[in-house]
Amino acid sequence: MSHVDTAPAASTPRAAEGRRPRRVKSQRAKSEARLGWLLAGPAFFVMLFVVLYPILQALYDSLFTYRLTAPDDREFVGLGNYGVILADPVFWKGLGVTLLITVVTVVVELILGFLLALAMHHAIKQTRGLIRTIILVPYGIITVVSAFAWFYMFSIDSGYINAWFEWLPGVDADLNWFAQGSTALFVIMLSEIWKTTPFISLLLLAGLAQVPGDLTEAASVDGASWWQRMKLVILPNMKASIMVAVLFRAMDAFRIFDSIYIMTNGAYGTEVLSLLAYRTSIGRLEIGMGSAVSVILFLCVALMAVIAVKGFKVDLADRGGSK
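Structure tokens predicted for Inner membrane ABC transporter permease protein ycjO (323 residues):
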């Protein structure tokens, strides 16, 4: 009589291959996670309340027709405010300007920040501190002060840019940079790039420091060119740092307000979503409509965060490792 194997199919090697091994945390990892929550937990819940309460309040106010001039005449309109905003071409124009500023500044800052990070990474050890301090100076300046400085630099009355660059095509003594949308946006984006590139460079410098030196040396010994080492070794190991830099800077650029408010106040086609929310809430005192714009702005920023995390496909848990 032949023996029939009655073992369950799940125990076969093929079935076992189909199952993903479950990650098991060691006791040390669990204790570190517990200690982290004990140390950061109180501050986390305080920040959660500080951030969450205004968001929920704005979401609630956006469902009503609410004006500060008539606070008792609230009327529930549901998603009516959102319908009015989405049907307004001013909103879509502001969204386009916001996206343009975000994309251009983030791309340029990422390139310049990476070059600065490479320079700091390969700098002589004795001069690294001095170089990093000099590079960080623009980022340490308050945004309002920086915006006023750039405004006066390019001003037709008090600025010196026209006199210095009069030899360039299209630049003369009578050029008013803030009298047309294209040149005004150029100055605004230039000021943002100048101020926040150091932030990007520091994040990328941290990523460069984590690239294993033996891998780059092995690739160099194998005859890989500089571009091949950059493409196949350095950039893949910096993916987490690049994601963090793009994520934080894109969210910050999408909420730009100070520079535009000071330089143009939204004139000549430079109005962005944050300025539109400010004008609606503070200028026209329409709290309900302004709150709806703020909620849409928040949803756009949240969507950008999800796209960045999903697009880079970085598993930060794996990078932390379990010990």
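The chain has two domains: 32-76, 89-312.
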